[in-house]
Specification:
Helix content: under 10%
Number of strands: 9
Radius of gyration: 16 Å
Number of domains: 1
Number of helices: 1
Strand content: 25-35%
Distance between the termini: 37 Å
Largest sheet: 5 strands, antiparallel
Order of helices and strands: EEEEEEEEEH
Low-confidence stretches: none
Shape: globular
Structural class: mainly beta
């Protein structure tokens, strides 16, 4: 009988080596904003809500970096916020995932080739994760000409 095993591959990358360029909402709207740069790179723009306040937050596109810019809203440390697409208003919360550190809700951005990036919605919590493709696709792509940037 042919059985499939799920294989998990972990790749350690140097800090600041991955830049998210093609994050989208569930409806496919690109979240990159070339008009607001963080460390010279286009930021990831999302609408943010905290209690009765709304504004924008520009996220650092470097995976694992937290130099974010808040506009029109002041979010206290420890506050749990909601993220929405600035184009269509789609909720960016992943209803099926919760932070492994603090149990808060997680946001989810879609990436090319079926990948996702998730992060904690609690200000100050640094938990996030990146799933580029499933393990079978990862193994298959080890032997192709795809580069890491084509997935981000």
């Amino acid at each position: 009988m042919n059985t499939k095993e799920k294989i998990r591959i972990e790749i350690e990358m140097p800090t600041d080596s991955l830049k998210v360029e093609h994050a989208t909402c569930p409806n496919g709207h690109l979240l990159a904003d070339p008009t607001v740069k963080i460390n010279g790179k286009p930021s990831i723009k999302v609408k943010v809500r905290y209690k009765d306040q709304e504004g924008l937050i520009y996220l650092d596109p470097v995976y694992g970096s937290y130099e974010n810019i808040e506009r029109g809203i002041s979010i206290p440390k420890g506050a749990v916020v909601d993220f929405f697409c600035p184009v269509c208003g789609a909720d960016l919360k992943n209803p099926d995932e919760f932070c492994q550190v603090c149990s808060s809700s997680m946001f989810m951005f879609h990436l090319p080739h079926g990948g996702i990036i998730e992060g904690c919605l609690k200000k100050g919590c640094m938990f996030h994760k990146l799933d580029i493709v499933d393990s079978e696709q990862q193994l298959a792509r080890l032997f192709t000409n795809d580069t890491m940037s084509s997935f981000l």
